[in-house]
Amino acid sequence: MQNLINTRFVKGFQAFVEFFFSSLKRFQINRWLTRKLWLNVHLYLALVVGFIFAIIGLTGSISVYREELDALLNPQLVVENPQGEFQSLDRIMAAVRNAHPDRYGEWTLEMPSSPNGMVTVWFEKPKETFFERYAPLMVSVNPYTAEVVANRFWGRTITTWLLDWHTHLHYDEMGWNIVGYCGALLIVSVLSGIYLWWPGVKNISSVLQVRVRLGLIRLVFDLHRVMGLCSAGALLILAFTGFQLSFPSLLEEISGSSGMAHGGTGESISSTAIPNDHPTVLEAAEFVARGPFQTAELRRVTTPMGDSGVYRVNLRQKGEINHRHPYTTVWVDRWSGQIREVRDPKSFSTGQKVITWMWPLHTGEALGSIGRFCWFLAGQSLFFLYVSGLMRWLHSKGWIKDRAIHVLDSTEIKLWIKNAVYRLLVVIDRMMNWLARKGAPLVVGMVNELSKWFEKGLGLYLSKIKK
């Protein structure tokens, strides 16, 4: 009986294959699936939305290191010598409320990711940016002193301004959708590029060459092909995850889950206890929330809003792929101090686990420091691929001219290095002389000594060059 079923299955499959290929011949679909078609697809995608690809890639690559860049541009947000323990959550929240007494509603306290970082307290809908799609207030608080250090709005800082370009092109809801569709189009562009690149097994070595002596356009095109191949895998992952983050409901519907999107708060939980004169404080809510997850790391706490509000405590369990936005969540009743609901990622379905990977995979958080750097390079490569492809097309239209590239020989390289070292020493010498004249009295002596040392070194270097 089993053999009869297998035989029928094989015959049915053969009939389907024959029908499929006969249909291709009948409608002459294979005439359209040509190299010329894919070349046109690749070209027109680049001409129509290539600039958007480049902007998304460039701003996204910079945003990989958003926290580090923000700390570099705002040194006051870095605790130089962290000592002691953090102040209590209630004291930190009291400092924020004293600084913003007229802001009512829920606040979210985000714990720093390093001992040198600040606690960031978020207020989602401030009156100053109420009608913007997403522009919360960010209050930076020193966790060791409970001092409010900075008050900033999302989109008003360089890093958040760049991230808004990456996520929605500063065009609100329509821009968000455009970026999502561009993610889908980028997948088509990358796949068509791989198809156009593929030379066959015997000719792979020929298309991996970067030829310098054949002119600028030839060099740019060779770099375009090689860099496109090297970054194709990363760009496909980034494009797919970016599309999902723009349209999270699609994957949620497929997996049969809701409230799993990045930034989602999960289920809507309300208090069932009677309001009283002894509400649960932040520290107590955290203590209760740690009950089911005693070894977990505290990441966020959201305060209740109104009499029916509850505390929402986000914890990160060991091994959880999300670092900044973990899915381990405990809801604690404001009035009774009891746990109302628990969300444990270890009990997620396969579809839910896939969703939890989308954000950390897109940002590189899930891949560690090496992965983040690779994602940075992939975003930069997208910008280069657009520029190099555009140069190739403009040259084919006769709008820009090719030019030869002069390749330096060993003697010229040595001379270039000598000149570069000489110019560097001159600049350093001038800086030392300026500091000696303008510097404070305590450092004048040291600067003078350094200046003399550099002048002596510069003299020796010049004498060697003359010889």
Structure described in brief:
The chain has about 475 residues and is of the alpha+beta class. The protein contains 14 helices and 8 strands. Helices cover about 55% and strands about 10% of the residues.
Characterization of the model:
The chain has an 8-stranded antiparallel beta sheet with strand order 4-3-2-1-5-6-7-8. Helices cover 56% and strands 10% of the residues. Among the domains are: 1-30; 75-156, no CATH class; 411-466. It is built from 14 helices and 8 strands. Helix 2 (35-63) packs antiparallel against helix 5, helix 6 crosses helix 8 and helix 8 crosses helix 11. Mean pLDDT is 84; it is low at 1-6. It has helices at 2-27, 35-63, 66-73, 89-99, 158-168, 172-197, 204-207, 216-246, 248-255, 282-289, 350-363, 368-396, 410-438, 441-466, and strands spanning 108-110, 119-123, 137-142, 147-153, 297-302, 310-316, 328-333, 339-343. A hairpin with a 7-residue loop joins strand 5 and strand 6 (310-316). It is of the alpha+beta class and 467 residues long.
Task: Give me some keywords for this one.
single chain; 467 residues; alpha+beta; disordered N terminus
Largest sheet: 8 strands, antiparallel
Report the radius of gyration as a whole number of Å: 30 Å
The H/E string reads: HHHHEEEEHHHHHHEEEEHHHH
Class by alpha and beta content: alpha+beta
Helices, by number, come to: 14
| First-to-last CA distance | 96 Å
Shape: globular
Strand content: 5-15%
Extract low-pLDDT stretches: 1-6
Query: Tally of extended strands?
Result: 8
Across the major sheet, the strand order is: 4-3-2-1-5-6-7-8
Give the helix level as a range of percent.
55-70%
Average of per-residue pLDDT values: 84
